[in-house]
Amino acid sequence: MVKIIDTTFRDAHQSLIATRFRTEDMLPIAEKMDAIGFYSMEVWGGATFDVAIRYLREDPWERLRQLGERITHTKFQMLLRGQNVVGYKHYPDDVVERFVELAHKNGIDIFRVFDALNDVRNMQVAIKKAKEVGAEVQGSISYTTGKVFTLDYYMRMVDSLISLDVDTITIKDMAGLLTPMMGYELVTAIKERYGIPVNVHSHSTSGMVVATYCKVVEAGVDYIDTAISPLAFGTAQPGIQSVYETLPEEQRPKVDMEKIYEIEDYLKPLLEGKYKKYLNPKVLMVNTQVLKHHIPGGMFSNLLSQLKEMGVEDKLDEVLKEIPNVRADMGYPPLVTPSSQIVGTQAVMNVLFGRYKKITKQTRDYVRGLYGRPPAEISEEIKKLILNGEEPIQGRPGDHIPPMLEKCEKYVKEKGYYTQDEDVLSYCLFPEQAEEFFKLRAQGKLEPVDTAPKLKGRVYRIHIDGEEYDVGVEEVR
């Protein structure tokens, strides 16, 4: 009998309404969610940390604590981007370790740890620390397709994760590319070789997910991720209501469907009213093109919106064609945060200004090896163009980043921003956004905003995967 990991409070609203679901709208249904019978609830991580500070003007740590006061029977879990933590670049080991400690202290029972390049070296510190504090760890595969992504490739990654003593293997299918038969084959192979619990997380972008879930349940998967409709489907996870009815009766999860439908009744008017402006109808549509170009649905719709704002909507087809080219140049990274932002942004730059005439800092850092080792070799031509004779770094990227926790703590305290240890971590991860938040908090002016501060300097604002980024660029010399 499969168990359910619910994503309503994290990935569902990140995928569908730009991560704008506010804590005040979660709390009224928190206790009812707790009584449904989910194995766990994904309530934190991903973009929720950044968006809470930047746009909602909420303390993400406080959200976790408030939910924890009301949800006492269901495990809490979060999505942790390995060495990226909840940000879009690598952070030093001292920040990763302290973040895991405080997240666990504030209520996180399960850490789902992944790396955008499937470079397990970038997951080591987070996994080790999570195990040390007594948390459960889901070691995650970022699933994608292509010539290098064979069953053997994924099983080698599972080997590496098993060596780190993870508790569960998660197949993280962020674009909805996992077919029913490949899902069955991969789950079967992992279960037969190791007998370890397996979790499948997928999105509805391609329209295959319910069929895939049926096959992985048949293969003996232990957990599947769902959300509660209407905050489901499209580029989010499938709705538990549909998945429940589709599964054979003997395989259905033990959940309280009556309470689920009560929550559906609660969510519907919120999406039709308060959050309507964030719900782009395009994200609710099946996008079969994702099977061809591997671009997640949220990335597609936000690229369309961005190009329209820039007055170059006619360039969309060129950008869509360029993204797979850039991905190939960069060694076929899975398109998931932050690699999706790096590839997508560079593709836009290539179309607007000429191929690699303007290079984002993130692209340069990627080619230098600061994000890790990609699944395949980066194009030699691109290496030569971008590195200009400089050698890429060797070894684990985290070894090249100096500690910063002590420096951040000193600054936060000297400025008078400190109210809790968690403030130091917020500043380490997002210094500009956190400092603005601290100032507004002191003034009692924490009100949600819909736009980020105005840009300064030579920066482009790009929307990728439902998130907004201010990207500095430089010309190739």
Describe this structure in words.
The chain contains 20 helices and eleven strands. The chain has helices at residues 8-16, 23-34, 48-56, 60-70, 93-105, 124-132, 151-163, 180-194, 209-218, 240-246, 257-272, 290-293, 297-309, 316-329, 339-353, 361-367, 380-387, 405-414, 421-429, 431-443, and strands spanning 3-6, 40-45, 75-80, 110-113, 136-142, 168-173, 198-202, 223-226, 358-360, 459-464, 467-475. Helix 5 crosses helix 19 (421-429), helix 7 (151-163) runs parallel beside helix 8 and helix 18 crosses helix 19 (421-429). The longest helix is centred in the middle third of the chain and has 16 residues, at 257-272.
List descriptors.
single chain; 477 residues; alpha/beta; eight-stranded parallel β-barrel; three-stranded antiparallel β-sheet; 20 helices; 45% helix
Strand order of the largest sheet: 1-2-3-4-5-6-7-8
Total beta-strand segments: 11
Gyration radius over CA: 21 Å
Classification by helices and strands: alpha/beta
Kindly, what is the distance between the CA atoms of the first and last residues, rounded to a whole number of angstroms?
A: 59 Å
Helix content, binned percent: 40-55%
Itemize the secondary structure elements and their pairings.
Layout: E1 3-6, H1 8-16, H2 23-34, E2 40-45, H3 48-56, H4 60-70, E3 75-80, H5 93-105, E4 110-113, H6 124-132, E5 136-142, H7 151-163, E6 168-173, H8 180-194, E7 198-202, H9 209-218, E8 223-226, H10 240-246, H11 257-272, H12 290-293, H13 297-309, H14 316-329, H15 339-353, E9 358-360, H16 361-367, H17 380-387, H18 405-414, H19 421-429, H20 431-443, E10 459-464, E11 467-475
Helix pairs in contact: 2-4, 5-6, 5-19, 7-8, 8-9, 14-15, 18-19, 19-20
